[in-house]
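Section 5: illustrative case.
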């Protein structure tokens, strides 16, 4: 084939290709132009996608930082509110405060920071002596009182936790020992009804091996439920007579006065009872002094008791009379009961058997007790 024919075939072929491209509306140059234009679009799209990823990542980090800061601020604020909420617990906010803390923190935090949530009192404090003064109003069955508790600190603590049940506490003060005498600042104080305790939180810690005093004034009703300090009645010559007596066993002394109301906490007690002079008052120990007042009331000061648990403490305000006898060793025994029961001799057997039992125990233990008093209401 000649060179010219070859050129003709190439020309024809090229023209065929050009014609085909022209029919398709695009020339070879246009295809090249499209390839050149596409590359910048792909790069721009890729840059846009990368910008969005970077922006989303930055927003995520910023959101995480903001959430962390808010969480820290809320936790700090929560602790402040917890401290303030305790001081307002006497107005009913203690339940909210205590409820909001349920389930928060570890068991160790609850043990160290919330000792009032345990069913047993913390072992940080140990009572040594109670000075208890009560004014008993038999006309409306109420009583008011003041208790001074001398206690020893065993372990360092900022909390004083003791039992109360049904008492309205008015004034609370804590005094340091003789090394640094003075009133200690109270941070907050509140009831925790679930465990029948009252909590006094101090600004500074109580130190071990030192003694402190807690002063509390309170008032309550003389209930009609046979527990704590309650009222009872009997008929005498067709007239109903009332009396107020105690039943503290096993854990009801807390109904009569704030105390460490567990058998393990033993202390001495000194009781003072003030009441209308038409009644007489009795307690564990004999009367040291009786002071008559101008308003027709009388105040009886009882001797200091031996060291004992709270449920052994007892007192009564009543119109009883008594019959007495003496053991061979000279111990005086008195039986108190309703006047008509004493007159009818209904208490003679109780008095006689008590004398025999006491003489037996004197011989058995080789010890002579102090005077013995029995209070026997006895049904008519």
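Designed sequence:
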């Amino acid at each position: 084939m000649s060179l010219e024919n070859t050129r003709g075939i190439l020309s024809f072929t090229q023209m065929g290709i050009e014609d085909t491209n022209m029919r398709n509306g695009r020339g070879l140059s246009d295809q090249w132009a499209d390839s050149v234009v596409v590359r910048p679009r792909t790069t721009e799209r890729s840059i846009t996608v990368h910008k969005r990823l970077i922006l989303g990542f930055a927003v995520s980090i910023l959101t995480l930082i903001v959430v962390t800061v808010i969480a820290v601020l809320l936790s700090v604020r929560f602790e402040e509110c917890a401290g303030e909420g305790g001081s307002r617990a006497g107005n009913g906010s203690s339940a909210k405060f205590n409820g909001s803390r349920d389930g928060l923190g570890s068991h160790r935090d609850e043990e160290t920071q919330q000792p009032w949530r345990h069913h047993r009192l913390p072992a940080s404090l140990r009572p040594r002596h109670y000075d208890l003064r009560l004014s008993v109003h038999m006309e409306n069955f109420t009583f008011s009182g003041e208790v001074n508790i001398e206690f020893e600190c065993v372990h360092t603590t900022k909390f004083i936790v003791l039992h109360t049940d049904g008492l309205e506490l008015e004034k609370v003060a804590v005094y340091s020992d003789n090394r640094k005498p003075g009133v200690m600042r109270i941070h907050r104080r509140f009831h925790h009804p679930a465990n029948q305790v009252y909590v006094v939180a101090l600004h500074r810690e109580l130190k071990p091996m030192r003694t402190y005093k807690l002063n509390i004034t309170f008032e309550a009703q003389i209930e009609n439920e046979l527990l704590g300090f309650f009222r009872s009645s009997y008929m005498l010559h067709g007239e109903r007579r009332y009396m107020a007596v105690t039943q503290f066993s096993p854990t009801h002394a807390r109904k009569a006065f704030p105390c460490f109301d567990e058998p393990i906490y033993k202390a001495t007690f000194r009781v003072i009872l003030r009441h209308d002079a038409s009644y007489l008052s009795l307690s564990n120990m004999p009367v040291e002094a009786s002071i008559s007042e101008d308003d027709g009331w009388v105040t009886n000061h009882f001797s200091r008791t031996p060291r004992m648990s709270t449920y052994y403490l007892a007192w009564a305000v009543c119109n009883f009379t008594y019959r007495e006898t003496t053991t061979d060793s000279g111990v005086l025994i008195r039986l108190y009961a309703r006047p008509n029961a004493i007159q009818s001799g209904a208490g003679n057997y109780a008095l006689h058997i008590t004398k025999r039992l006491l003489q037996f125990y004197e011989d058995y233990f080789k010890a002579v007790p102090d005077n013995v008093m029995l209070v026997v209401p006895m049904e008519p």
